[in-house]
Structures are given as structure tokens and as C-alpha cells.
Amino acid sequence: MKQPPSEEPDESLTVAPPKKWAAGVPAVTHALQYSLEETSVLRTGRTLLTMNQVDGIDCPGCAWADPAPGHRHRNEYCENGAKHINDEATTRRITADFFRRHPVSELGRRSDLWLNQQGRLTEPMVKRPDSDHYEPISWHDAMGLISEELKALDSPDEAVFYTSGRVSNEAAFVLQLFARAFGTNNLPDCSNMCHESSGFALHETLGTGKGTVSLEDLYHADLIFLVGQNPGTNHPRQLSALERAKANGARIIAVNTLPEAGLMRFKNPQEIRGVLGRGVQIADRFLHIRSGGDLALFQALNRLLLEAEDARPGTVLAHDFIRANTSGFEEFARHARTLAWEHVLAATGLTRDEIENVRDEVLRSRRVIVCWAMGVTQQRHAVPTIREIVNFLLLRGNLGRAGAGACPVRGHSNVQGDRTMGIWEQMPDSFLDALQREFGFDPPRAHGLDSVDSIKAMREGRIKVFLGVAGNFVRAAPDSAVTEDAMRQCRLTAHISTKLNRSHTVCGRTALILPTLGRTERDFQATGEQFVTVENSMSEVHTSRGRLEPASKVLLSEVAILCRLARRTLDGRTGIPWDTFEADYGAIRDRISRIVPGLHDFNRRVIRAGGIRLPNPVNEGVYPTPVGKALFTCNAWEMSHAPEGHLLLQTLRSHDQWNTIPYTENDRYRGIHGSRRVVLVNPRDVSRLGLAEGQRVDLVSVWSDGAERRTEGFEVVPYPTTPGCAAAYYPETNVLLPLDSVAETSNQPTAKGIVVRLEPTVMSTV
Amino acid sequence: MQTVEETIEVAVPVSTAYNQWTQFKSFPRFASVVKRVEQIRPNLTHWVIGFGPVRHEFNAEIVEQEPDSLVAWRSLDRRSRHGGEVSFRATAPDRTAIVVRLRFEPHGVGGRLARSTGFTRRVIRTELGHFKEYIEGLGQESGTWRGVIRNGHVLPSEPEPPRSRVAHWPVG
């Protein structure tokens, strides 16, 4: 067993120039170095060599699709995936003794990094009211404690059941079934905070919430947009797909506020030329856009395409496609023509030449794909932006055709699958009716609470019990101080977790840690060894089988914990066979196959190499909107505006981080080492605001409620962000993000475009 | 760009010939050079072609498809550019003329071989013979897909084909 560090890292900041390329040999050495710090050579080999292979472990990291069976590398993973899987496979262990030595109040002062470094949770723990320590509790008593609290509620709607994207399809299905059989649709999830805007915009305009492209489309596109996305850090395997697309002649346009290394050049460590050569240039054009300017950019492109059609009628727009498959074109076109260039240039920070050059690229391309991530979805006007991207794709028939389409790049391995399984507070009646037919109970019909509304309800005392399955809700959520205060209002908080995080330290009156198997671990139940299934960002559903011995003999799987809890709580009120589900996950998949459209014959089909490729109706020429056609939309916008002396802040992840968990204090590609309390500011803004490199500042956000949200002691790092735009690390800066600052329609917290001012830190407060 | 055209007449009705031809996944049943076909979507297919120990893979887009009339494709790989049409015409109620027109860009050693020896023409002629033997022997098609594809887009033949019945709710 490896020993965790006992003290917090104590390094000072050093800043080097940002890297101009991603991956290469350093990616391999960093991945191996971290893996071997956490676990043995043997376990590292066992995890890495089975990772993302047919019959292997699905990387619990991002949701990027795997190449087709027979076309996968022996090492089919990225640096961050390798770190992440071995972060779970660590041989460090947290025992009851750890909690005797560390009171909850002390753990609450520890960093995310330190908490994660302590290793795997190994036995159920409880923090009782008025105690400052977690202490051991048996599984039986833990289940009893939670079920008694649930049964004592005045209404099932006083509980929320949160899901993180690591949760398997089987566990997600059981969780939503339990919640609905218990009587509530309060099923917030991490989707609420990452791609909710994509789901709403695509569902409204195309009738389906999922992306339309597969890897084969990316390989054969003529032109690929990467908008608000940093693939080098957040989806590194996408770079291999982009490399292949480029070899096949694709052009790539990156649209971002930061010139990320992964957008510039990629050295594929799987290839000799990537190890020895200069690598492949990724972006042919880089649009250094102002934060939130994407809507104006795509609207301008759409106007330019309409004008190009005017100049050469019948040569630019896909008239047959528009006529046969879309609705609302005329109104959209009228609206698009009213766009004022001065507004576009102000909102984007780009020149007209730059935008017209992009138009020319579009006109030269038969197949266009637009990829986007949280640089788009976490803006206030994210939903209209994505609707405008759909307009852009529709104009030239770039939907439903090979090598073209919409590609929301999701960030967490099963975040899409969990939603397919019914983890959503607003599930349609068709799904609830199917549940009713299958299980014979009446699921609640009133919509439940999403993440933001759950926090509000907790703050107001309307939620008494919080159950989190995986994840780190407290750190992922916005407005950290408000969220933490809300969690502390709960009567009981319980987390099904593999590792320690801050959500265990910011807890209700009673708190439970329910330690669970990781995805890397073998899962034995009464009928034998089990596998689970997941769905990637390209709608491929496949198996994941753990290979390692569990971190502790008393760990239960997520499915087992949920089934036991459901059985204890519901007391046989329904005929749901929780015992059978726990014993045989195939029995769960049988039920899923009868409830979730597209997953018929689930057990038989999912074990084929590569699994099940869920079709996207758009690719079948079907647009399941109310009018049966894709919708053109008219999207109004207001420019993101920072008053004089302020900047637009975006939160972002470092390269050495996975979701809320930093692995080190470094961010290699951006040249930041030794500290995460930095704010990246354009050099012009540094001097304009009278600041200096290395100066310590407090970040203070401005919001209409007048409340002061401040985080102290950040070092100013001059960095080539777009002028007027700054960046700082998530989750440390979530404290600046007002709970009420959400995207229109989707209610997704806006972690981009936060108006902040930088105030010199008063030294005594540091 | 080289062009090769070959015709064959098969003794089955045009709909039978068309239906069987468009069951692309069954090509390895009769075509000796086709080792595997994956139909990724109605308008996107992946082909594995083999000559002896040599394997060649490519993706092909179905650009046009009209029941009982035409299938037109084009390869999507830059290094192996080809495309063409297969047309179906009833010459009698139970007889169909099938014309394969292939356009390709000779590429590499294999391409030079194809250009100098008429190799491609012979392969197509042989495989058409295999298809004739296969469909006439079966007498009826093993499956059908009657959708229409225009300019790479599927026009559905019914409001919602079964394959597209998947979860439609928003995905966050």
C-alpha cells in the first residue's frame, strides 16, 4: 500500500511560456509517472492495457468514442485517462483510523488535491449529529439510517438524488427507478452543469438531444469547427481523430478565447512521426474570439451565406434539403439579414476579414462538422448559440449526411447514458408510462428539481435528504458559499463514492460515506461476475468490465447499494425485484430493453464487439420535432458586457485535473506550475487595469443581487487571452458564480462570461 | 479518373435484384473480394476488400438511392478515390439488367496494376457473375430497405422508421 502525502503541497508559482503543441513523449512520461506514484507496475499494466479495449474497462474519464473494434491501438488511452484510471486504481487506502485522526472540520480546510490524494474509501462511515468525526457503521445500519430519514419525510419531494456521469447505465436506471418508486422526480445530475444547453437546443431544433456524428464522420469531414473547446486537455483522444481527418484533407477552424496547445499542434505518441517529428498542425485558422461571441459569429456566417446565395443563386444553399426537411427558413433569413456588422465585430472581437475568410472556407467545403463544448454551453445565451449553429448546418445540408453534423463533445464518460436511462427531472410521459407498464407503480408526473433548483430548495429548507451517486456535487456546483450553506441545511447527506472529496466534508446534520467499487474493479454478485454498460458521446453503448481486485472486501457496487437502499426504503411497496437486480445486472438490462427506445434486445446486442450504435433519427431523415422537420430559429442576443475596469471571467480546468479534482498544482500546456491560484489576463488588460505580473489580487464578481462574491489571493499571469477576457481555474472560482446566473432555457450555470473586477489583495488577508 | 462499365442480366424481378443488392452487409456471401461490410447508417458504409493476404478498407457514402432504379456511391477516403452507380432496369417481368459503372483514380502499386491490366474490369465482371449465381439461386431477397437517398440525405419512406425510434429527450 502506497502512503499518501500528509501535508499540502507547498510550492510557489513559476510561469513558463505556453506550449505550442500537445501530447508527444511528455504525455506518456507524465501519465506513467502519476500512475506509478499511485499504484504498482502490475496494476498500471492491467488497467492501461485493457482500457478502452473491447471487453475491457471503459475509461471513466471523458465520453469520447473509441475507434471501431480491430482499429484500436494497443494503448488506447490518453495521458489524462491514464492518470484518471490509476487515480482510482491507487493502492492508497482510507480506513477508520484516518477519520479518527482527522475531524470533519479539519478535512473541510483541506484542498481538493490533498483530499483526493488520501486514497480509496474502504468502509461505510457515518458522521452523527453533533459529532465532528466520521465513524464506522455497518452497511445494514447505514441503509437503515438513510431509509428511516427518507420514510420520515413529509413528502418524497423533500429528497434529491444526484447522479454524476461516471455512473453506469445499470446503476443510473436503478437510481431513477428507486427515486420514482419512492415518489419524486428530483434527479439533478452533472449534465445540468455541462451540456444541458446542448440538449435543449438540439432537442428543440432537431427533435433529438444527442450529437449526430460518429468518428467516421469526423475522419471524412472537409471542414471541422472546434468552438469553445480544449481537446488537448479535456478530450485528448479527439486529437487522434482530428489528425486522421487532416490526413484525409480536412481543414480545422478553432474558435476560442485562449490559444490552447492542443488546438495548435499534436504529436501523436502512438506514431513514430509523433514521437520524433514536429507533429500535425491542428487548427488551420484560429479565431481568437471574445467570450460569448460565438452566437454573433455564426449569425454573421449565416448572413454571409445568404448573401453568397444572392450573388450566385442556386449554388450556396441546399435548397432541396431545406425545402424537404426544414421549417422556418424564410423568417430566419429575414432575421439574419438584419444583423449589424458593428455589433458582430464588437461581440466577437474579430475583424470582418477574418469572418469572411471563414465563409470562404465553408463555401469550399461539402461536409462541415461543428464540435463544441463548455466554452459555448456555459454562456448565458448558450441555447440560442447552439440553435444558431444548427441554422448554420441546415443552410448547406450539413445534417444527416456522411461527414457532416453537430458534435457536442461531452466531458464525462457516461453522462449521455445516464440521461438515456431516465436521469432527468423532466422525463416525458412516454418514458413514465413505460415505467408504469413495466413495474406497475404510478411514477410522479410533476417535474422535479435540477441542480440549480435543488440548491435553492436546500437553501430554503425544502430539501431534507441529499443522496449523491458519484461526483463531487459541492465543488461542481456554482456559488460555492451558497451551495455549501445549502448542503449544511440538510438533515442527511449521503454520498456513494470511491474517493474522498469536499462533498464529504460539507455535510448535513447526519452524513454518510458509502464506499463503492470503481469501474476498474471486478464486480461479483450472486449470479457471478458482472459487467456494466455505458454510452459515449457518439451514442455507442458498450460494456465495461473491471479487472482489478476491489480496494476493500466490504465494498459494494453502486447497483448493490442502490438496490439495498430501495428495498429497505420501499418495504415491498412495489413489486420491483431489487434482489434480482442486485444479483444479475442482466435482469436490469432486460427491463431497460423494454423501457428505453433503441435498446431492445439489450443483453444480446451489447456484448458484440463495439456494442450497440444507437441510431440518430436525423441521420435517417427523421426530425422528431412537433412539426416533423428541423427548425430554423431566429436568435436575438445581447453582447456580453463588462463595465469599465472589469473583465469577463471564464473558469477552466488545468491539464493536470479531472473534473473537480486536480492531480497536481501544475498546468503544463499553459506553462503554469506550482499554484492554481492564478488569473490569466491579457497583457493589455494587465497594464490597462494598472496591475503587474505576479501581483496578488482578489477576484470579485458583479451580479444584480448586489452580494459580494470574492476569492482572495490570485496571482496575475499575463496570458494571451482575448482582450477583455480572463480565465481562472475551476472549481476554485465557482465561488464567483451566482446561483441565479444561468443559461436561458436550460438553467445551466454560466461559468463563462462572469463579470469580475480584480482588486489588489490586502496582504493581511492572504 | 478511369471508368469501367460492366452489365449483367439476372433472372429475377427488378425489385428482387435491387433489394438484394442493397443488403450491403451480405456482399461477402457472394463477392469473393468483399470480406466485410458494415452499414453504419443508411447513407454510410464501411467496406473491407481483400485480394489474397492484402486488405483494403474504405468508407463509402451512398449519395443517391432510388428503389428498383439506382444506387450511387462515392468513397470518402482521400487515398482511394472512387465512386459510381449501379442501375437496375427491368428487361422482362422476371429479368433485370444491372449496370455497374465505376470511376476510380488509380493510386499506388495496386492502382497501376488496375490501369495496365484491366484487372478492375475483370474483378467486376466476375463479381457480377457471382451476384447472378447468388440471387438466381436464392430466388428471393434476404432483406429490404426501400428508403430514398438524395444528395446524401435520407428521405424516409415512412414517418418514423423503426431504426430511428430512440430516446429523443434532451441529453445534457
Description of the molecule:
The complex is a heterodimer of chains A (766) and B (172). With 766 residues, chain A is of the alpha/beta class. Chain A folds into three domains: 93-193 and 414-596, Rossmann fold (3-Layer(aba) Sandwich), CATH 3.40.50.740; 196-408, Dimethylsulfoxide Reductase, domain 2; 647-765, Barwin-like endoglucanases. In chain A, a hairpin with a 2-residue loop joins strand 19 and strand 20. The longest helix of chain A is centred in the middle third of the chain and has 18 residues, at 294-311. Chain A is globular and about 75 Å long. The mean pLDDT of chain A is 95. Chain B has 172 residues and is α+β, with helices and mostly antiparallel strands. Chain B has a domain at 2-23 and 62-141: START domain (Alpha-D-Glucose-1,6-Bisphosphate, Chain A, domain 4, 2-Layer Sandwich). In chain B, 24% of the residues lie in helices and 41% in strands. Chain B has four helices and nine strands, in the order E-H-H-E-E-E-E-E-E-H-H-E-E. Chain B has a seven-stranded antiparallel sheet. Chain B has a two-stranded antiparallel sheet with strand order 8-9. The model of chain B has no long low-confidence stretch (mean pLDDT 89). Chains A and B meet through helix 9, helix 10, helix 11, helix 17 and helix 23 of A and strand 2 and strand 9 of B.
